[in-house]
Predict the 3D structure of the following.
Amino acid sequence: MQISLTVNGRPYTVDVEPRMLLVHLLRDVLDLTGTNVGCDTSQCGACTVIIDGRAVKSCTVLAVQADGTDILTIEGLAKDGELHPLQEAFWNNHGLQCGYCTPGMIMTAYYLLQTNPTPSEEEIRHGLEGNICRCTGYHNIVRAVQEAAQRM
């Protein structure tokens, strides 16, 4: 099937198998490998992207379902070589270790800050519940989101 979508501001028209997952379209066809495949069961959040303004786990969406949508991935956050405030805050606060969960964590935090620009610590922790990090213990991730909220 042929679908058209916009990813990080760039329009694409691609042929996809009806059973292809969006995460595989992003990674394998569009070569946007920042979106990670973690669990394939929607538990970990490593594949989170923004579709039409909402945080979505791309392993739960068929590529054909994304026809006509506007998608933002981790690669689309930085502008003109400058990191997005969330990316900088994760760096500054050591909100990453192995980095595998980081793109999904940042995209979920991006959505959170779009919907709640001044979240409390509890709201940040609740907003990130669908993302699993096995390295950091979440404290530095929460601090990074707090810093980004102040800067944004």
Remarks:
- Strands lie at 2-7, 10-15, 48-51, 54-57, 70-72.
- The radius of gyration is 15 Å.
